[in-house]
Amino acid sequence: MAIKDLRGKKTFITGAGSGIGRATALAAAGAGAELYLTDINEASLAETVAAAGPAVARSAAFDVSDFDAVTAFATEVHSHVGSLDIVMNVAGIAAWGTVENLEHRHWKSMIDVNLMGPIHVIENFLPAMVKAGKGGHLVNVSSAAGLIPLPWHAAYSASKYGLRGASEVLRYDLKRHGIGVSLVVPGGVKTGLVNTVEIAGVDREDPRVQKLQHRFEKRAVEPEKVADAILTGILKNRYLVYSSNDIRFGYWLARKFAPPYELVLQKANDRFSTLLPR
């Protein structure tokens, strides 16, 4: 069943210690949601918990790439409140570079955090939502780099395209259970990631690099704008959630025949569902 109001909705948000995660947690708290929060940074998470106040029912600092840690938190949450209503995968990291400069650690960390992290969350929380039969919503924060092949983003895009692929399948798989899916595809966002992203083989103090960074920052939006777009996406049950029109237009160019494509995918999914045991 579609979510029309966040009041009292049990909402899990990863990456809640900063950036989009924190902004979304505070916006959800303001909308009356009951929050379950995590972040790898315990101090940053504590700041968000303090700012959100009594809206936070439970929080714990852990790494979403650690399956056992995610499972332990999910077990604790389910033992107290049963299934959740909204699950948001926001946590993520970034590293850019050309293939000859990227190291194995870059590729692995992108996949471990940006793709396997959300998968760990989905594995632990979505089956309980399905079983509860109350509907709900799943939010996966991908990136413009999950839609468009941006320069030097091979490792990052591998993780974000992977999350996009999983989300697109789940969009149709979960529809019969009344669970909506939103794929968030922000472009530039003014978060700490802008200053900390590792660019393999590039000196960040190079004036040319600094110039590109400043140009990026001028086009970047505040995390609060992305948070508002996410909450609107949930309430309006939107699949693709944009925070800037440039990304919307770029993807439209790549997929201007989307409506018949989506209809065929839904029909195919409905056909497969007839094979499931009743």
Could you name the ranges where pLDDT drops below 50 across 5 or more consecutive residues?
A: none
How much of the sequence is in beta strands? 5-15%
| Helix-strand string | EHEHEHEEHEHEHEHHEHH
Proper CATH architecture? 3-Layer(aba) Sandwich
Based on Cα principal axes, name the global outline: globular
* Biggest sheet strand line-up: 3-2-1-4-6-7-9
Helix share bin:
40-55%
Question: Biggest sheet, open or closed, and with what strands and sense?
Answer: 7 strands, parallel
Instruction: Provide the CATH topology.
Output: Rossmann fold
Rg calculated over all Cα atoms: 19 Å
Give the N-terminus to C-terminus distance in angstroms: 20 Å
Structural class: alpha/beta
Please give the number of β-strands. Answer: 9
Q: Count of DSSP helices?
A: 10
CATH superfamily membership, which one? NAD(P)-binding Rossmann-like Domain
Give a written overview of the molecule.
- It is a single chain.
- By secondary structure, the chain is of the alpha/beta class.
- The protein has a single domain (10-272), classed as NAD(P)-binding Rossmann-like Domain (Rossmann fold, 3-Layer(aba) Sandwich), CATH 3.40.50.720.
- It is 51% helix and 14% strand.
- It contains ten helices and nine strands.
- It has helices at 19-30, 42-52, 67-81, 104-132, 154-173, 193-196, 207-219, 223-235, 245-254, 258-273, and strands spanning 10-13, 34-39, 56-61, 86-89, 95-96, 136-141, 179-184, 198-199, 240-241.
- The protein has a seven-stranded parallel beta sheet, with helices on both faces.
- β6, α5 (154-173) and β7 form a beta-alpha-beta unit.
- α1 packs across α8.
- It is globular and about 60 Å long.
- The two termini are 20 Å apart.
- 41% of the residues are buried.
- The mean pLDDT is 89.
